[in-house]
Specification:
mainly alpha; MetI-like fold; 16 helices; about 65% helix
């Protein structure tokens, strides 16, 4: 026999499965694809089993396969987790919530109602004491009831006006920045409104329509969206031509879905910060309008109280202390909470 024949025979012997005559293969499962229980089923015969007996196809289940790539990450859960790490912001949030709740409780525990009958001769400018906890105002009414009613009214006005300004500003800013054809129109509208002092518009509205809190609140929304819209428009320019937005346009995705699903999430941190700073800013603007006589002074507000207190500060300093302290607390609260929540909303700060 030649060397080549011997070599081929040796290769065939090596490739052929070795069968041990002393092993009982009757115990081997004839179906290699059937699911088997875990454990060493054939501890002695496994090394001598044929290859088709040793290996079997894994069972595929779509639901189990999806769990492999599943993540427990949640954007808003991560936002709250990061926000709760800022102890000072959490503390000030609790302070503001308690302050707002107390505005409702104060009227119940106070001795006198806000509609207390005036008595200028006997009760005007009484300093704080056991009877009048915050003293009395210029017409002899209980200042405790006045301050807390004004705080509730100013907070509600500031929150509603700020939400309105931010909502209108974000919607206009998204459309302004994404739709190129409308850029010229909104730019001219912005220049037309912004180049004229807002106080002139507010004065005209107060004289022609009225000085009620509702009217002036709507006017503040109508002219307060400019800064937010301009900021959002500049940010949208950065994300408008990203690859995923180009792909969405090629796939025929609707404009609203692109704006609010692809671009809006990147603006959340900026929007939250502007909203938080707009609330104390609205209270300060309300104070200015009241000082200029453009707000109805019949409805108590922090602006009304501060405006009235400045005229009698040397004589009755307490009339300025209480509303000024509350305005300071609100301003500091929203500054700290706004910055902390804005940082928490930034995806780059998420782990």
């Amino acid at each position: 026999m030649s060397k080549k024949t011997n070599r081929e025979k040796t290769i065939q012997e090596l490739e052929a499965p070795k069968v041990d005559m002393h092993v009982d293969y009757s115990t081997v499962d004839p179906d290699p694809h059937r699911a088997r229980p875990m454990g060493r089923e054939y501890p002695k015969a496994r090394s001598q089993m044929p290859e088709n007996q040793l290996f079997a196809f894994a069972k595929y289940e779509a639901q189990e396969a999806e769990k492999i790539g599943y993540s427990n990450y949640s954007y808003w859960k991560s936002v709250w987790a990061n926000f709760l790490k800022k102890k000072s912001a959490v503390f000030m949030s609790i302070v503001f919530i308690l302050l707002f709740i107390f505005t409702f409780v104060a009227s119940a525990i106070g001795k006198y109602d806000i509609n207390m009958a005036p008595d200028v001769l006997n009760r005007a400018y009484i300093e704080p004491n056991g009877e009048y906890w915050f003293g009395t105002n210029a017409i002899g009414q209980d200042y405790w009831a006045q301050v807390w009613y004004a705080t509730r009214a100013s907070i509600l006005l500031a929150v509603l006006v700020s939400i309105g300004q931010i909502t209108v500003g974000v919607i206009i800013g998204l459309v302004w920045g994404y739709v190129r054809k409308l850029d010229r129109f909104f730019t001219e509208l912005y220049n037309l409104i912004d180049n004229v002092p807002t106080i002139i518009y507010m004065t005209l509205i107060a004289l022609m329509v009225g000085k009620t809190m509702v009217t002036m609140g709507i006017a503040m929304v109508g002219f307060g969206w400019l800064a937010t819209a301009r900021n959002v428009r500049n940010l949208v320019f950065m994300y408008r031509d990203r690859e995923y937005n180009l792909a969405s346009r090629c796939l025929g995705t609707k404009l609203g879905r692109i704006l609010f699903r692809n671009i809006f999430p990147y603006l959340v941190s900026v929007i939250i910060l502007r909203l938080a700073l707009a609330i104390p800013g609205t209270i300060a603007y309300e104070t200015t309008l009241t000082y200029l006589g453009l707000m109805d002074i019949m409805v108590p507000s922090l602006g009304n109280l501060l405006s009235a207190a400045r005229a009698v500060f040397p004589r009755a300093a307490y009339t300025l202390w209480f509303p000024a302290a509350i305005v300071s607390i609100i301003t500091i609260t929203f500054y700290l909470v706004g910055n902390a929540f804005s940082d928490a909303c930034d995806p780059r700060n998420h782990v």
